[in-house]
Amino acid sequence: MVKLLGVVSALSFLTSNIIRIVHLYNFHNSPGGPGRTHNLDSVTLESAWDFRRRESPLYQSGNAINALAWFCFAIPVLQMAWGLSRGGVRKTGIHTAIAIFVLGGCATEFVARLMLVGMTSTSLWVSSEFNLDNWLPSSYAVNDDGIGWKVLEITHMILRGLIVWVDAFEWICLFFICMLTYFSIGTQMEDKRVLSMHFARLGLAIGFFAFVDFSADILRFMDFRSFMPVAIVIGIFNSIFLLPVWVVYLAFHVDKLVPEYSPAQDSFFGSATTNI
Description:
The protein is an all-alpha fold. It is built from 7 helices and no strands.
């Protein structure tokens, strides 16, 4: 089961980020591309929302697949933390922290992606069904004031700002997961290691890029044009190449970490047999 979840997570990361690349390429060549809607021209905004409606199936499927990737990612990592702790007796604090970070990061990312799907669907519905052209009274003698398009665009940008911080939180959680995993594996005796140091060092690289991505996510509020491409490139590189390899390797080796267990060793079964 864990192997299947690991493979699903890796394929979902790969697929969602390929979809993201295609969407970003289309977005950069669209009427609502970077910086083109900042003057809030109603004609440009209407064209931008027409593009978003056409692009919606691709964009929404990418978000849904990304949510699935993080959901499936949590199970192998939790099992790894339990196995590395040898059933909760080795470096308990470190492995508890790994579990907290994976649950916090994956849960918030999963919920955020579902919220983004709902938010985008509602915004697209408003853009196609509501009157956004004429909001001023007829006494102003102004046709097509476009105030509705401006309000919709600003609201859309504010709501997407929530997701930016969730993405930043996701990367800092991944950073701590990888750093703590490296420390846990590195402090094991060599003859007791199930997960290799090559795996740990790959996680170290993923953690480094995750921290750089987190920093770029924060710094792009100061200089959007400079740091936004950095955040996109590093995030895609990490999620397409490094993270899927790490997850698949973990999924196929994590079973060896789990302490051996037999129902016959359980006190419940022993006491039940005695009573019978």
